[in-house]
Amino acid sequence: MAETADVVETVKQGYAFEGAAIELGALLAGDEPKPEAAVRIPLSMVNRHGLVAGATGTGKTKTLQLMAEQLSAAGVSVFAADIKGDLSGISQPGQESEKLLARTKTIGQEWTATGFPTEFYALGGQGAGVPIRATITSFGPVLLSKVLGLNDVQESSLGLIFHYADKHGLTLLDLKDLRAVITHLTSDEGKADLKDLGGLSAATAGVILRSLIGFADQGAEAFFGETEFDTADLMQQRDGKGVISLLELPNLQDRPALFSTFLMWLLADLFDDLPEVGDVDKPKLVFFFDEAHLLFNDASKAFLDSIAQTVRLIRSKGVGVFFVTQTPKDVPDAVLAQLGSRVQHQLRAHTPNDAKALKATVSTFPSSSYDLAEVLTQLGIGEAVVTVMNEKGAPTPVAWTRLRAPQSLMAPASAEQLAASVQASPNNAKYTEVIDRESAYEKLAAKVQAGAERAEAEQQTEGQAKPEPKPRAQKQEKSMVEQVVGSSAFKQFARSAGREIVRGLFGAARRKR
């Protein structure tokens, strides 16, 4: 019919890009897909970011898999959080079936079973992948405050604690280092050190310490320490294909803030490390941020502002970010406004809140001939409403799209396949071994001990050594950091401690190469 012909022609012209592109699928019009009206995202616009949204079970993960495959084939590295373990099959060729081939034929897709180069990671080694860790010093006070759920005053105090540790050469490798410094700063010696900086109240220190204990009880000790992950390892190629890095997130429901904030640390570290490249033909890396609502829940305004700044600026470093969540309402306006591509799967309107989310979603799309409120509730699995940014930076026509099928396995890889991939990874040996090197705590303790031994030797030489009274048990329990940092040996060492830590976005320490 004429109306359908008009829609086909509009989409055909609107998505006719000259350069390389991600092929999402074909326009669905009049209940039939129209292969001649292909729906695509220009590779040059992928670093303008995007959103993949939809209710549970509507195909978001398969859309992510489809996009990751094509990015890899174009030589672009990909990072994705594998929430349910469903993405691990991207490393294996897909399985052909009559139903699959019948679907791909209707949309003009030439389907070939293909696996893609994949690296598997796990936070702190709590999973089958190569361990990813960060030091507390690198993670910084802002991200850690988000994880711990601290209020503004407590976050400010934690920032003061990090400032003190940075200034005095006290590298915080893990949680016990941070607890030791906090304990010191509530001692008499520590209070004097902070006198000119506003001080740290015992009540606030207590809250932070209790939060750290609860955090450690959730298993967080495993996430912090060395060897610290180098985000440069996310940008690799093999045989001309970009490597797809998948981060396993087991037990997400137990510590959602940690997982989402850890992903933000990866982005902040990338931002600090990568050079400016401006507009490029294709991105260096595309970062898929699944379960994105977890990042924004209960976040302070300052934290949200930092996220918006990261998203705005990191595109000039050649990095594209796609947020994956249920509705655009999950993403703050300041971030949503920067997402150039939208792939919206089915939404449900079973409750008043669902209806409100549906209305909000419709308002985020350009005007179109569709009744989007109706279309969004009628989309089938593997279908989506799409609009992207064309090569000139303008939004394309809204298109009801039947999406292409991934060519890799649309199921988890087997445990044997996963184990073999991890064992063969060049990063396995690099990150699997846990390094427990001396932190500032141990180094300073050794320095003080050496100074005490020299003093004792001098006293014996001069015949002035006097037996010291046996210390009471209470004095023996005094923390080593209290002894070290309050000593004159420490103060001399601190004055010559070397470089000061430089912090970037979210207070994360900037990597020195």
Folded structure, characterized:
It is a single chain. With 513 residues, the chain is of the alpha/beta class. The protein folds into 2 domains: 298 residues, 3-Layer(aba) Sandwich (Rossmann fold), CATH 3.40.50.300; 149 residues, no CATH class. It has 21 helices and 14 strands. A 12-stranded mixed beta sheet has the order 2-1-14-13-12-3-11-10-4-9-5-6, sandwiched between helices. Strand 7 and strand 8 form a beta hairpin. Helix 6 crosses helix 9 and helix 10 packs across helix 12. The longest helix has 22 residues. The radius of gyration is 27 Å and the shape is elongated. The relative contact order is 0.19. About 4% of the residues have low confidence.
Q: What descriptors fit this protein?
A:
513 residues, alpha/beta, Rossmann fold
Task: Give a short synopsis of this structure.
With 513 residues, the chain is α/β, with parallel strands linked by helices. The protein has 21 helices and 14 strands.
Which secondary structure elements does this structure contain, and how are they paired or packed?
Blueprint: H1 2-14, E1 21-29, E2 32-42, E3 50-53, H2 60-73, E4 77-82, H3 98-106, E5 118-123, E6 130-132, H4 136-139, H5 141-148, H6 152-167, H7 175-185, H8 188-193, H9 202-217, E7 237-238, E8 241-242, E9 244-248, H10 256-273, E10 285-290, H11 293-296, H12 301-314, E11 319-325, H13 333-336, E12 341-344, H14 352-363, H15 372-378, E13 383-387, E14 399-403, H16 415-424, H17 426-432, H18 440-461, H19 473-476, H20 480-485, H21 488-495
Parallel strand pairs: 3-11, 3-12, 4-9, 4-10, 5-6, 5-9, 10-11
Antiparallel strand pairs: 1-2, 1-14, 7-8, 12-13, 13-14
